Amino acid sequence: MKQLLTCLAVLLILTSCNNKRLVILSKGPATIQEEAGTIQSKDGGGHEETTLLTGRSSWSLESPAGKASIELKENGIYVVNVKNDTILGSQQNYVSAENAGQVISQATILHKLDSLKLLVEGKNVSAANRNFYILPNQAALITPNLDAEIVGPYHKMTSAYAKDGAMPEVYRFYSIREVRETIGKLEVLTQPIKK
Fold it and tell me: Which residue range is the domain that position 126 belongs to?
């Protein structure tokens, strides 16, 4: 019994040390050296995501955008951008797949369009609003909830299911290019129909 309690205490200490989950976004694979506290990314092909559970707070970043240092002081999930592109995102209230096909009103489209335009300009961005504007070689604390879901750029997730009766905490991120393309598509939807 004493051995079991000792093992549980050691396990608790080890898991409490890894109180940060980094979601590292890169173009091509990133090289991560946790002991040295470095994340390197070269300008490769395609989008890559790497998740790392760590207790480390200070990191050196090197990417096509240059070099930088970041401090991750609080516990929680961070998105680390080592791409040569700005990453935008926000918390999403996904609905179940059965309810995903509902008709969206013109007013809802206009509201979403205005919100996206502000987000691209880096306006109205704050942790309180649960939206994020992450420049290259920067990181942002997304949530203290280590169980939240992070959906990276170029994924096509459209719905989520409740877990234990509650909707999951989901944050969706896009490249700034994806958001600009979405703005273009939404602007077409707001034009009057020509007869």
Answer: 18-189
